[in-house]
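Lecture notes, part 5. Sequence design as translation. It can be helpful to think of inverse folding as translation between two languages: the language of shapes and the language of residues. The source text, in structure tokens, appears below.
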């Protein structure tokens, strides 16, 4: 790739709005429409019928995706471009789609898509063969390429090469050319022809090229077809030879197996004789069993007769309780006699008055419960109550989304919150308990006792994030349902077909479906009644005071001698990039890593980070202690591996880092790319380069203002405002 078409060149064009000035957006839309209009009808229909995912490689600022949406209304759409400036612009313009930065020449480790589109890209690349092979590797079914065709040399300076039919092989990797069409696209955007090519897996389609090539006046493809047919015949002959050898080998194995079968038959005959002896023994035991069963039935009959007698019923009803009480009185008498004999006055008094004490305790407990339920009823009267079914304990050290939402809702006017807890580990709520003036904690065990008192509320709203809590909707019968789609279902306990079914039902029926990531939103936007994107957030009031904390004593004396402290807190799991941490630690021995959190899936044990003296692991810490660790961080990081889970992850810690005014470096997760204050990396060297740049930032650098702005725009108060506004909008629609 020449300097003209380098990443720096295109970043400059996109960041300086040169692309918009030259109507690059209009050009992208034009070629996208041309593609949709000229695709074979059978291919378009197959893509629609099977809901194939489509990715536009070289999407620029993403203007092709809305055009594609007009044809492929329900298909998941993605965009990739090697220019970071282009991807940032695309994410801002079209937040409903997922965009990511990627280089065409680096397909390894990148996700595959059933359909790949690469429109007006390859003419910019000098390494054409390498580029075509790399593009095809990103496709699992179809590769669609659009490029200038028979363009005069030197017309457009950015076009590195001129493309003809002999520029494209009949086969690329495991895909074969199945369709070609020349398109005259004379317009203000382009004066010459465009060539539309479709490659497909050989095993998927058996088309012949002679009737699939349209309006391409060249024999190059047909010559290649002949070559390919001869290669095919040679390959068949080779495979036949291998098949013959395989058959011979299998025949030999079959002979050996026949010998083994003969041996097994003789063993079977031996076992049959043993089986006959065992059958005789079994008959003897069966006879004994039948005799015992007959005796048991006789005894059962006699017992049934006794139980029907009036004398038995009288004994059970009157005499047995008397006997139990007499025994209790007798034991009490023995205890009193012993206490008098040994002058145990205190124990004697307790023994004498214990019946009265027990009665008093029971009465007090019942009165207390009645008082609490009445207090709840009075508090909820004529108010909107938002109910959060049990997910985690309220007093769990690390505050998560359910707790943060409950707190934020409780700050709203005319809203009360009921947070239901299972009392798993950190809670010990007896029946009801007040967390603040507008927020009640409720023990799940007694929810049936509490529900009747919810009738006093003006309106009951349930906010559910775990489909296993569906029974609460049946019990409470809320007026409105908020369904929180916060993660891929695979991460939840109890994942399976039943959860998938319930998930779909909630999406279809909930008054508001809250998606914490664009990827999740794309999955539901066409089936949900009222879907919104509302990411996670940070407790700004709490974390903005990080500077007032003392550095935690656990790490205070371990910071000296290091030029930079890089920190992380949260779960350490399979999606955590241990390799990146180790490589940076190896290259930068004067940098200290501090990792605070739970060893979620025990992946930490096999990570090998314990071999590094400049990597410190700290066990999970209480939520209130996190700022004392954050205070020590020069840089806060989220080094997650990009996979199906992290593509839809909106990390809460991201916004807490912002509030604490800590510079951030994160992997290129779509939900991190949305914010200007988040620095993202592709590899280890880029991570190190970004960190070195951050350490040189001055106090008046504009970065700090951007960090502050992103923090203030992503608080839990604002997120709950978004959700309640969507809920209000849903009411108006009805």
């Amino acid at each position: 790739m020449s300097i003209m078409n380098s990443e720096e060149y295109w970043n400059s064009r996109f960041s300086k709005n040169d692309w918009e000035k030259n109507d690059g957006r209009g050009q992208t839309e034009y070629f996208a429409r041309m593609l949709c209009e000229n695709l074979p009808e059978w291919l378009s229909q197959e893509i629609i019928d099977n809901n194939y995912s489509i990715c536009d490689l070289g999407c620029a600022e993403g203007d092709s995706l809305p055009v594609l949406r007009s044809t492929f209304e329900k298909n998941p759409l993605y965009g990739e471009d090697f220019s970071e400036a282009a991807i940032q612009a695309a994410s801002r313009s079209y937040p409903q789609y997922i965009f990511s930065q990627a280089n065409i020449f680096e397909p390894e480790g990148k996700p595959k898509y059933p359909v790949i589109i690469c429109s007006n890209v390859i003419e910019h690349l000098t390494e054409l063969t390498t580029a075509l092979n790399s593009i095809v590797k990103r496709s699992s079914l179809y590769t669609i390429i659009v490029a200038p065709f028979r363009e005069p040399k030197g017309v457009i300076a950015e076009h590195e090469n001129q493309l003809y039919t002999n520029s494209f092989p009949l086969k690329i990797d495991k895909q074969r050319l199945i369709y070609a069409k020349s398109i005259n696209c004379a317009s203000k955007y382009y004066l010459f022809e465009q060539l539309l090519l479709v490659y497909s897996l050989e095993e998927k389609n058996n088309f012949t090229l002679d009737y699939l090539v349209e309006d391409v006046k060249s024999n190059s493809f047909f010559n290649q077809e002949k070559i390919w047919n001869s290669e095919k015949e040679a390959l068949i002959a080779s495979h036949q030879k291998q098949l013959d050898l395989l058959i011979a080998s299998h025949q030999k194995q079959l002979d050996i197996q026949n010998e083994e079968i003969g041996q097994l038959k003789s063993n079977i005959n031996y076992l049959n004789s043993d089986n006959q002896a065992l059958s005789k023994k079994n008959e003897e035991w069966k006879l004994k069993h039948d005799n015992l069963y007959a005796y048991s039935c006789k005894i059962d009959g006699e017992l049934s007769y006794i139980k029907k007698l009036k004398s038995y019923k009288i004994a059970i009803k009157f005499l047995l309780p008397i006997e139990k009480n007499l025994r209790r009185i007798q034991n009490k008498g023995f205890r009193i006699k012993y206490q008098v004999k040994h002058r145990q006055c205190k124990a004697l008094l307790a023994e004498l008055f214990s019946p009265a004490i027990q009665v008093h305790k029971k009465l007090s407990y019942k009165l207390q419960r009645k008082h609490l339920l009445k207090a709840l009823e009075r508090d909820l009267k004529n108010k909107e109550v938002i109910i959060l079914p049990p997910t985690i304990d309220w007093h769990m050290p690390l505050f998560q989304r359910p707790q943060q939402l409950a707190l934020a809702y409780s700050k709203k006017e005319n809203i009360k919150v009921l947070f239901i807890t299972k009392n798993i580990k950190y809670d010990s709520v007896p029946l009801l308990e007040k967390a603040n003036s507008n927020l009640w904690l409720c023990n799940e065990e007694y929810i049936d006792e509490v529900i009747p008192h919810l009738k006093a509320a003006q309106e009951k709203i349930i906010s559910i994030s775990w489909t296993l809590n569906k029974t609460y909707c049946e019990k409470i019968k809320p007026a409105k349902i908020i369904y929180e789609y916060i993660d891929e279902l695979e991460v939840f306990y109890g994942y399976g077909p039943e959860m998938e079914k319930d998930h779909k039902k909630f999406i279809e029926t909930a008054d508001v479906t809250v998606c914490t990531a664009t990827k999740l939103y794309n999955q539901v936007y066409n089936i949900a009644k009222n879907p919104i994107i509302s990411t996670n957030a940070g407790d700004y009031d709490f974390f903005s005071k990080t500077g007032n904390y003392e550095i935690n004593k656990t790490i205070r004396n371990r910071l000296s001698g290091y030029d930079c402290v890089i920190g992380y807190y949260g779960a350490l799991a399979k999606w955590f990039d241990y390799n990146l941490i180790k490589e940076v630690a190896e290259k930068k021995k004067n940098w200290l890593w501090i990792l605070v959190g739970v060893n979620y899936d025990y992946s930490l044990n096999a990570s090998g980070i314990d071999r590094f003296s400049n990597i410190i692991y700290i066990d999970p810490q209480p939520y209130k202690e996190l700022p004392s660790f954050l205070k020590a961080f020069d840089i806060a990081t989220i080094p997650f591996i990009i996979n199906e889970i992290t593509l839809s992850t909106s990390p809460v810690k991201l916004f807490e880092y912002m509030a604490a005014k800590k510079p951030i470096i994160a992997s290129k997760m779509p939900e991190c790319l949305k914010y200007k204050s988040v620095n993202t990396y592709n590899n280890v060297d880029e991570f190190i380069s970004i960190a070195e740049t951050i350490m040189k930032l001055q106090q008046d650098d504009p970065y700090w203002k951007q960090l502050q702005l992103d923090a203030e725009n992503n608080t839990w108060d604002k997120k709950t405002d978004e959700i309640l506004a969507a809920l209000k909008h849903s009411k108006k629609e009805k």
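The translated text above is only one of many valid answers, since several sequences can fold into similar shapes. DSSP finds 23 helices and 23 strands in the chain.
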